[in-house]
């Protein structure tokens, strides 16, 4: 079945710097890759997603890139702000071998003012 | 107008008790899920229902029994609670299954077994 690896597990940046979180997946048939942000005491919230027919997608300060050949995808946050501090999860799905999204283990991002 | 609502938000109970967590979504989604998040924040699928039909039942003790009376509701009943059941349980829904659509998560139920 699908396996998703996420790195780093913790990331600390200064306000205004960029943050990058990387994920790799094992099932080459996976074709849907969402990213979630989980703030303290809340459920994960979808912030951006990408499908395998697209290499990059942007939404204001966040962007996701996908390399299907290498089977990895990344989340990029520019001009980080303290409110970006949260746990971020990547996920992969749609490969057919499983009926649900498979999540990475999460990255705790801390943005220091 | 909460999209996915879970009750209760907090649940503290003694070992051996039976408890239920309720979930409702008003998004018109066909698929609903239960996930368990442990202390290390790892999200693990427990069950998935599509239009009231069980689709996924991961390796979960049979003390956990999901029930979906209709496609907008997915409840989780837990018998004979154990210390290791302490975790945050999230309900989620999606437009369809197969991992092809994003999930909308509820705010979670923090279960503490003492």
SSE inventory with pairings:
The complex is a heterodimer of chains A (about 110) and B (about 110).
Chain A: E1 4-7, E2 10-14, E3 19-25, E4 32-38, E5 45-51, E6 56-59, E7 62-67, E8 72-77, E9 86-92, E10 102-103, E11 107-112
Parallel strand pairs in A: 2-11
Antiparallel strand pairs in A: 1-3, 3-8, 4-5, 4-9, 6-7, 7-8, 9-10, 9-11
Chain B: E1 4-7, E2 10-13, E3 19-25, E4 31-37, E5 43-50, E6 53-57, E7 64-70, E8 73-78, E9 87-94, E10 104-105, E11 109-113
Parallel strand pairs in B: 2-11
Antiparallel strand pairs in B: 1-3, 3-8, 4-5, 4-9, 5-6, 7-8, 9-10, 9-11
Q: Explain this structure to me?
A:
In chain A, the strands form two sheets. In chain A, strands 2, 4, 5, 9, 10 and 11 form a six-stranded mixed sheet that branches. In chain A, strands 1-3-8-7-6 form a five-stranded antiparallel sheet, with no helix packed on it. Chain A has strands at residues 4-7, 10-14, 19-25, 32-38, 45-51, 56-59, 62-67, 72-77, 86-92, 102-103, 107-112. Helix content of chain A is 0%, strand content 54%. The radius of gyration of chain A is 14 Å and the shape is globular. With 113 residues, chain A is mostly beta strands. In chain A, strand 4 (32-38) and strand 5 form a beta hairpin. Chain B is an all-beta fold and 114 residues long. Chain B has strands at 4-7, 10-13, 19-25, 31-37, 43-50, 53-57, 64-70, 73-78, 87-94, 104-105, 109-113. In chain B, strands 2, 4, 5, 6, 9, 10 and 11 form a seven-stranded mixed sheet that branches. In chain B, strands 1-3-8-7 form a four-stranded antiparallel sheet, with no helix packed on it. In chain B, a hairpin with a 5-residue loop joins strand 4 and strand 5 (43-50). The mean pLDDT of chain B is 93. The A-B interface holds A 30-32, 34, 36, 38, 41-46, 49, 87, 89, 91-96, 98-103, 105-106, 108 and B 4, 33, 40-43, 45, 48, 55-56, 90, 92, 97-108.
């Amino acid at each position: 079945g699908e396996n998703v690896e996420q790195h780093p597990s913790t990331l600390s940046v200064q306000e205004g710097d960029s943050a990058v979180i990387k994920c790799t997946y094992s099932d080459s048939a996976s074709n849907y890759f969402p990213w979630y942000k989980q703030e303290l005491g809340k459920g994960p919230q979808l912030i951006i997603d990408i499908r395998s027919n697209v290499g990059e997608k942007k939404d204001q300060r966040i962007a996701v890139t996908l390399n299907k050949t290498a089977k990895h995808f990344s989340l990029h946050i520019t001009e980080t702000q303290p409110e970006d501090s949260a746990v971020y999860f990547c996920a992969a799905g749609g490969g057919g071998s499983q009926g649900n999204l498979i999540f990475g283990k999460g990255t705790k991002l801390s943005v220091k003012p | 107008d909460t999209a996915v609502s879970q009750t209760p938000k907090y649940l503290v109970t003694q070992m051996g008790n039976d408890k239920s967590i309720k979930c409702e979504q008003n998004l018109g989604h066909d698929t609903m899920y239960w996930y368990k998040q442990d202390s290390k924040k790892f999200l693990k699928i427990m069950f998935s229902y599509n239009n009231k039909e069980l689709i996924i039942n991961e390796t979960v003790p049979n003390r956990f029994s999901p029930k979906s009376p209709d496609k907008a509701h997915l409840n989780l009943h837990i018998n004979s609670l154990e210390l290791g059941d302490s975790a945050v349980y999230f309900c989620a829904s999606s437009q369809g299954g197969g991992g092809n659509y994003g999930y909308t998560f509820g705010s979670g139920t923090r279960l503490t077994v003492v």
